[in-house]
Amino acid sequence: MTEKAPKKPYRRPPTRLIQPAPPEFAEEFVRGGWRRVERLYGARTDTLLKWIEMCGGQELHKRRAETWRGNSRGNEAPETGKKPR
Description:
Elements: H1 25-41, H2 45-54, H3 58-71
Helix pairs in contact: 1-2, 1-3
């Protein structure tokens, strides 16, 4: 009697390729964060997460944090120049 090999868990193949991130994506993310790129590109969450990774991942998040830290003294949003409500 032959032994059966253990079954590997089924892994669904990707249904589509992820498009490359737009050239200005990283800069837009640094300027306005998640909400800004979500509104500008209207992409799905998984696509935005992959674009962030493609553009530098943690380094991109650090640049975003530095932008807001440097701007917190004036208490103005970088993309509008207006004081938050």
